Amino acid sequence: MIVLKTSRELSIMKEAGRISAAALKLAGEAVEPGVTTAEIDRLAEKYIRSQGAVPNFKGYGGFPATACISINSEVIHGIPSKKRVIRAGDIVSIDLGAVFEGYNGDNAATFAAGDVSDEAKALMDATRESLYEGIRMAKAGNRIGDISAAVQRYVEARGYSVVRQFVGHGVGTSLHEAPEVPNFGTPGHGIRLLPGMTLAIEPMINAGTEKVKTLADGWTVVTLDGKLSAHFEHSVAITAEGPQILTLA
Ligand code: MG
To answer: Ligand 1 centroid to 216 CA: how many Å?
Structure first.
């Protein structure tokens, strides 16, 4: 069932989104060679709690941390660790969110640690842009497939591949709600978008094969060919006035 949010609920989601976005910004600013992923996670958690919110990933399905931090060929769900030191040239995907007054924010971005290769930069740029291509289609009257196809078209035109095994989702009182928001699809297909729907749109884009596997830790998803992956995400509301990004710092 897809839950349509009232304007009162959307204003709470906007605050949950603000906290999520500010925590992500803080985490991204901490990405530097020599820093551990555990330290970044700690900073994000401290900020979220300072805002009267709670990290919504922590404990979700047993996930042990505030942020998923995934480096280079890691796609999503990397577990922060004191042993994981960021190195110059790494690209670091951070995915995190906050629950505030019962409503969830969810956002992600990939950050560069020091100077990264042109190849890495181009992948990050294309993934970020594909998110905005998707958001532009998040309009009442369109269908989910319009968002999906816009993301897919943008990245595949640049020679990248779309991860298919994981998709975006509705977001609200639950971190993951209906509907699914794939990053691949056909324009004009899927459910129709209505004002009050809130979607987490999150392209996960690989430099090489779209195929991924999960490591033995049960969480970390990596590209099958070991090539780079990037991830950008916003929580977005469908409104009569057009798409409204909720996760803005
Ligand atoms: Mg998400």
So the answer is: 22
Rounded to whole angstroms, the Cα distance separating 129 from 175 reads 24
How far does the centroid of ligand 1 lie from the alpha carbon of residue 118, in Å?
27
Residue of 101, 111, 160 lying closest to 133 (CA atoms): 160
Q: Which residues contact 227 (CB under 8 A, 6 or more apart)?
A: 73, 206, 207, 208, 209
Instruction: State the distance from the centre of ligand 1 to the C-alpha of 240, rounded, in angstroms.
Output: 24
- Tens-digit pLDDT profile for the chain (249 aa)? 899 999 999 999 999 999 999 999 999 999 999 999 999 999 999 999 999 999 999 999 999 999 999 999 999 999 999 999 999 999 999 999 999 999 999 999 999 999 999 999 999 999 999 999 999 999 999 999 999 999 999 999 999 999 999 999 999 999 999 999 999 999 999 999 999 999 999 999 999 999 999 999 999 999 999 999 999 999 999 999 999 999 999
Give CA separation, 138 vs 2, 157, 240, 244, in Å: 15, 21, 11, 9
